[in-house]
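Protocol step 4 of 6: record predicted structures for both targets in the notebook before any analysis. Target 1:
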Amino acid sequence: MSTIPSPETPHTGLHDAGGPSWRWQTATDAAEVHALLTSCDAHQAAMSGTPAPQRRQETTRRLVESGSVHLLRHSTGPAGMFTLTRRPPFGTKEDVFPLAERPLYLSRLAVAPAWLAVPALVGLRCVRRAMEVATETGGDVLRAQVNPDLRDTCTLLDLLAFTPCGPTFDDGAGRRHAHLHRRLGPAAPGPGAG
């Protein structure tokens, strides 16, 4: 199983991926992606006091093989990731969203826990990159599920103009999720653009 290394001296520029220390890639190593995802889930669960999502390695492998997982890599290792698909993730309640012709779905947003304590804004980089890729591939709206108990994640998505849709759902075991969407277009950069 891959481990997520701690950042050394992070570069904090936001342009593109921030210089030679940072680069975007389409993920190819499902074990590395799954380790990043589950370490972020465990960290968020500990911070919020809510259960971590149940993640299947088979789903991770399938998403990596389909080219749907975007990985932000720092010279010290994987820092953040997101998945972007045309099909909704399991559990998405499609009827809560406004109509769209070409929706894309943002899921499995994750930041290596060590990067949450430094001013590198990895989560912001991931969501902005997801909006860019979704726009470049012809999407007219970006849809997402979010755990409303993850306040920092919800605040970030709110700042980037994601709008809540419908009620908050609860699985009865303490796992809650809400649906968000964001219209896409040429003026989509949001805060921190530069």
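Target 2:
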Amino acid sequence: MAHALLARMGLRSRALLATHLVELAILAGIATIVGIAGGWLILRLATQRLDPFPLLSPLPQPASLQIVGLSTAGVAVLGVVLVALYAVRSARRAKVKELLRA
């Protein structure tokens, strides 16, 4: 609602998009980092605990999370851009009387 009012008061679309991108990128970045770190930790623990003979060679090696991490980061970036564009579009099209009534 605040962004819609700022749009009505003359904030340019580029500045509105930049503020949305910054806000959403911070939230998505924190969520992605926590998710990837949690997945890596669980993978390390599961690899060690599910090995029936942990003392025999070869030692258990966890799988690589590189592809999963990169694809998760890519989806997060795409999501942030799409949601920011949708929010700017919604802020531009919002009616003033609906904003004031809410």
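Step 5 preliminary note on target 2. The mean pLDDT is 82. The longest helix spans residues 13-49.
Proceed to step 6 after PI sign-off.
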